[in-house]
């Protein structure tokens, strides 16, 4: 059963680092959403939920996302996560198992996910400077954009593509065969005669018996089993070369030299203009 793991980071750079380590741990990028409600509207990279598009001018979009996640009955949790989520970068992991969810939570904690309850308490007490969330270039000497490059990994797995099954059964069919049989019958004949008895007749003139038996041929049936054919199952293995066509992505960085005569007022105005342009085109 899939589980959702949420990590909120102070800035997008930390969220990108966590994203890279999640991918290194075997979690595919299409199961990871990264959004920054505190800047302009940002659309997440997949379709796991319909509330993944946030807008700086519509705080309710963040609340709707957490309300869908935690349920409408848990208003305190929704309010706490929404308050912190509007000021940072939200990284959402859609884990396929409890083990993967635990690993994702460990990586999020390791690479800077904030304690939501503690950070919300700091916001409410006024002890946390929210300006540092989105202006790291003003308070540090350097900033970095992670260069992410996908590598194509091609493996093999065995799948069933078909086969054959041999099933044997016994069938019966009637057969006919002709044979000639011989039968004996004893025949008794009586012939009337009238002649004088001879010496031979007188010698046989005594009691006795004569026996003659009858015989007949009857059919004798026998069966002999003979192997007339053999059916075997075997495999022929062949190898083929297949070329995999795929697309991999890589972060492309363009470096633009900025002139040094831009004052702070002009910079602030340009930043506001960029936000307005993004609001008019949510896909930016």
Automatic annotation (TrEMBL):
Give the domain of life. Answer: Bacteria
- Compositionally biased region (Low complexity): 265-275
Q: Name one Pfam family in it.
A: DUF2382
Disordered: annotated segments: 259-284
Question: What species is this protein from?
Answer: Adhaeribacter swui
Hey, what's the signal peptide range on this chain? none
- Note the InterPro entries from the entry: DUF2382 (IPR019060), Stress_Response_Assoc (IPR052967)
Please report the name of this protein according to its UniProt entry: YsnF/AvaK domain-containing protein
């Amino acid at each position: 059963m899939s589980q959702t793991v949420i990590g909120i980071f102070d800035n997008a750079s930390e969220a990108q680092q966590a994203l890279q380590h999640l991918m290194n741990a075997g979690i595919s990028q299409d199961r990871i959403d990264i959004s920054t409600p505190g800047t302009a509207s940002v659309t997440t990279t997949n379709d796991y939920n319909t509330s993944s598009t946030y807008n700086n001018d519509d705080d309710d979009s963040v609340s709707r996302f957490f309300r869908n996640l935690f349920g409408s009955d848990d208003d305190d949790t929704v309010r706490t996560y929404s308050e912190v989520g509007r000021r940072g970068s939200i990284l959402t992991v859609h884990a396929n198992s409890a083990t993967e969810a635990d690993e994702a939570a460990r990586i999020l904690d390791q690479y800077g996910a904030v304690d939501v309850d503690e950070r919300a308490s700091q916001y409410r007490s006024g002890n946390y400077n929210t300006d540092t969330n989105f202006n790291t270039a003003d308070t540090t000497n350097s900033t970095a954009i992670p260069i992410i490059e996908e590598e194509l990994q091609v493996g093999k797995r065995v799948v069933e593509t078909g086969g054959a099954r041999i099933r044997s059964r016994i069938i019966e069919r009637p057969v006919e065969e002709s044979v000639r049989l011989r039968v004996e019958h004893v025949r008794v004949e009586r012939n009337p005669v009238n002649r004088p008895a001879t010496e031979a007749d007188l010698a046989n003139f005594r009691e006795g018996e004569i026996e003659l038996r009858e015989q007949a041929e009857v059919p004798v049936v026998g069966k002999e089993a003979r192997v007339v054919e053999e059916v075997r199952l075997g495999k022929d293995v062949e190898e083929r070369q297949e070329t995999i066509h795929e697309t991999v992505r890589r972060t492309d960085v363009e470096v633009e030299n900025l002139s040094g005569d831009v004052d702070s007022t002009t910079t602030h105005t340009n930043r506001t203009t960029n936000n307005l342009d993004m609001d008019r085109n949510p896909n930016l």
